[in-house]
Amino acid sequence: MIKQTLTPAFPSDDKRWRIVETAMKRSNYQADALIETLHAVQEAFGFVDESAMQFVSARLNLPASKVYGVATFYNLFQMKPAGEHTLSVCTGTACHVKGNDQIVEFLREEYGLNPGDTTPDGKLSFIGARCVGACGLAPVLIFDGKIVGKLSVDEMKQKIREWVNDES
Amino acid sequence: MVHLTIDGKHIEVPEGTTVLRAAQQAGIHIPTLCDHPHLTPYGGCRLCLVDVKGARTLQPSCTLPATEGLEVTTVNEQISDARKFVLSMIFSERNHFCPYCQVSGGDCELQNAAYEQGMTHWMIQPNWNTYKVDASNPYFSYEANRCILCRRCVRTCQELVGNFTLGVEQRGAASILVADLGVPLGESTCVSCGMCVQNCPTGAMMDRRAAYRGLSADAETIKTICTGCSVGCGIEVTIRDNNIIAINGDYDSPVNQGVICKIGRWQSLEAMDSGVAVKTPMIRKNGELVSASWEEALAFASKAIDTTRQSLAALASSSLSVETLYAFKKLFVDGLAIQSVSASEMGKYTNAQKSLAVTNGVFEGHLSALNNADCVVTIGEDLIHQHEVVGFMIKRNLPKGTALICVDTDGSAYGNLPNSVIKINPGTEQQLVKGLIAGMVKLGVKSCACDGCKNPDQVVQDAANATGVESTLILDAAYILGNAQSPVIVYGSTVTSDVDASTLTTIKCLSDMISAEMISVKGNANSVASAQFGLDQPVDMHTAKAAVIVLGDKQPCDELLNAVSKVNTKIVFSAYQNALVETADVVFPVNNWAEEEGHFINMDGTVQKRSQILAANGQGKASAQAIHDLAAQLGFSIDDHWMEALQSTPASVTIA
Questions:
Q1: Which of B181, B422, B480 sits opposite A2 (nearest CB)?
Q2: What does the pLDDT read at residue B411?
Q3: CATH of domain B2-75
Q4: How far apart are CA B320 and CA B324, in angstroms?
Q5: Given this structure, which CATH class describes domain B282-348+527-647?
Q6: How far from B442 is each of B453, B474, B480, CA to CA, in Å?
Q7: Does the pTM exceed 0.95?
Q8: Are residues A34 and A56 in the same domain?
């Protein structure tokens, strides 16, 4: 097989790049493994930043614009480091109707967060999720991957305050 | 072949043809926005919806392959309503308020489509979000508010130019065009070829020089060729009131198939815009250049030439037309029998090919071979910065699996594109090629009976030692090359400058072994013609007492200025004022590239005619005419049998 003679160096000494490299190697550096590779970056680092995209682009021999396009297309890929804790708020139709619109407003007023933002102290990230497929539990909040549903707006606010204060 | 019916018309098309193309071939008009005849179908705008008998919904004709017995209707009320709805959505997605836009009034495909569909308004609330204008590129700007996300520019950048700079970020209504990792265009990997501007259906991509200078309805378009370098790309020049508005690539040209680079599109105009024309002939009197008539100047020049004939040197730019170079050769070589006559390149790009052609005849192929190549080797030429269009023709095929092997002293210019960059020590091209040949023999993919290949291991090892390249890398490259079905070898000045053609002979040996096409990129627009006329000898200007220099519309390089700094009498033919004109003793005004016609032989031997685009102003004459006049003054007459003269010496390319 054709040997790629241009092997880009890892962006830093961080050992987690080896995880990313392994993920790419598993697919024999095929260009169509881009999404899996970005998943590997996201899992290893928690976010996909510019240096990561540059590295992946060079390693898979893909245009930088393609990598950037795919990384921005999917909501899951974060471009910035997430906070210590992540709160996903479902903004799908059912959850919106059941009061998550008020939760979005509450987060903006109480913590100054818009979807995609992290508090300046790096404690809390707020992600606006599309429908998570649990409409029966509406309204749905996800605290660090744990789904909480079927609460009233006041209960949810209470829960957020409790959760944020508890953990911080 | 498949048979289908469109609007009751029976049509036969080859398998794989889309319904849209079939309709176009049959003369049936279907409106489109995202489709472009030279790009792959995308199916993004949904304007080309048609009714297919038996289909549940309307189908986009641009992505629908024609199948046997298909019955298609392109006009009915349902289709018309659907198209209007599609246009309404496109109009409401961004700020499409036409009066401000430079293409409004006939050059906007979106506006034209709306008029065609009879749109008077759109019923959907427009999105009032504004996007920033990216004006960071010196030649064009991107106005995202006018973008309809048809992705023609993205496909152009990938499929025609092979630069892969443009992409789309986000999704849905938030989608926006980006360069690389979302950087401004001016800081991106964009090479400013402007093909995206040429193909943009709306005013989103704005040619900064051409904008608001006139719509195509007010202007005339003339097909001609670009003479910026030896590729000889076909161009379409839009002119209005004896001014050039814009230059676009000519999709009908067999040489470049529509793609041009920033030199052809913008820099040739920049030179014209910034150049100060020499208006009249000038003679140096009492240390100062003063205007004179053509008669006075010709008399002065012929006297100077007559008195200094023994130590005269003559140099012509190899960017001049064949007619001019022929007249120049006839006058100075045949007529005045002067020894030191050459063209500006002095054979740097043609010496080796010319030597080899004496024994081998024509051995170089056409540029079009690159379109079907499955492996391209470039030796000693940076096709990213020089002869960019050849680079585009190579790079755009890389996603299809074409292997690229770059042999260079500095391979970094190619970024992460090539399969293999072989960075060699300067001057070791020949050893490397020998290594590749022996590598193929060693790996058993090709055989060779020559003495050099008896001990391939040793040759590969020697090559590795000489070039500073690891032998495994040479073997990898040899493996790719040996297994290629239609390889092409492109080589440049480090190979071609050498008169005894030793490196080129080795490359020829490699090429014979793998049946590769050979292409050398040459230098200026008329490198081949200069060489065929024998204007390729080295000339030492330092020892000359007088010099005749025909610059045409080119600027003198520092090397030339240094070389002639000690020459007493300088006779210069120039279109523009420059450092050489300032020190000249006689100056003849000649026309620039747009003002004179002439023939050019490109790098693969194609003879093309450049048309006159603009009427000449002032007293400038065509370069060929100016030399004819000087010859007449000296008592010579010049014929116009340049084609015979071109073909009288063996050439490496077929001149036709």
A1: B480
A2: 60
A3: 3.10.20.740
A4: 6
A5: alpha beta
A6: 9, 11, 14
A7: no
A8: yes
